[in-house]
Amino acid sequence: MSTYRILLADDHQLIRQGIKRIIEERSDIEVIGEANDGAELLRLMKTLTPDMVIVDISMPNLRGIEAAREIKSLSPGTKVLMLTMHKEKNFLIEAISAGADGYILKEDADVELYSAIDRIRRDGHYVSPTLSGNVIDSFVNVLQETRKHPADELTERQGEIIKLIAEGKSSREIAEMLGISIRTVENHRTNIMKKLNLRKNIQLVQYSIRKGYIQSPAEDAFRH
Fold it and tell me: What is the 3-state secondary structure (H, E, C) of 17-53?
């Protein structure tokens, strides 16, 4: 089995060092990079090819939740494991809705990290057992709802981009408006078309009108 490649993101260096030390005790997994905020994490994603990203929810510049959405949009096959101090139900639901494959508490990382990595590596999902049963039920319910309607579950960033594409904006214009690279816009476009099973831009425009991202020409004319 090939070595499993992990990218760490946490603004606390001591936490990163502790997680890295645990990981390096195993010969089949390795840390290929470290980031101290969400923006740096996304920059590293462009040059590295991690199998998994272990990311803290609370980070400067770009929260782990938003980073998870971007990671899943740019590289759907990359697994995301949230490492957090938050036990509240709403944080878990938000993380899973953003595409996270697992959610473990920092206080449990020393005993749960291997189990989480191995479960997610086998295309499973993982939640810290110390979280309440109601929270785990919410985790399962969110996963089931996402699987029921995968085509309608665009991320917030994908929603922004599909609206701008439907309005006729070029990739360069979209990149400048959103402060991202042209390549990132093109990756989003490809992922959106694939997720929605669309072949042509006119289909994307029709979808945008149907879902309310933009108004139809008739509606727009009526308003004026």
Answer: HHHHHHHCCCCCEEEEEEECCHHHHHHHHHHCCCCEE
d(CA 99, CA 19): 22
What does the DSSP 8-state code read for residue 62? S
Placement of tokens 């005993």 in the chain: 111
Q: Which one-letter amino acid corresponds to residue 178?
A: L
DSSP SS3 for 111:
helix
Q: How confident is the model at residue 25 (pLDDT cuts 50, 70, 90)?
A: very high
CA-wise closest residue to 41 among 23, 22, 24, 60: 60
Instruction: Report the b/e string of 69-89 with b at 16+ CB within 10 A.
Output: bbbbbbbeebbbbbbbebeee
CA-CA distances (angstroms) from residue 136 to 75, 96, 111, 163? 26, 11, 19, 34
Q: Which residue has the tokens 């992990």?
A: 6
- CB 168: neighbour CB atoms within 10 A? 10
| DSSP state letters, 188-205 | HHHHHHHHTT--SHHHHH
Are 111 and 18 in contact, with CB atoms under 8 Å apart? no
Amino acid at 162: I
Instruction: Give this prediction's pTM.
Output: 0.62
Lowest-pLDDT range of 30-34, 73-77, 145-149: 145-149
Chain centroid offset of residue 67 CA: 6
User: Residue 152: pLDDT above 60?
Assistant: no
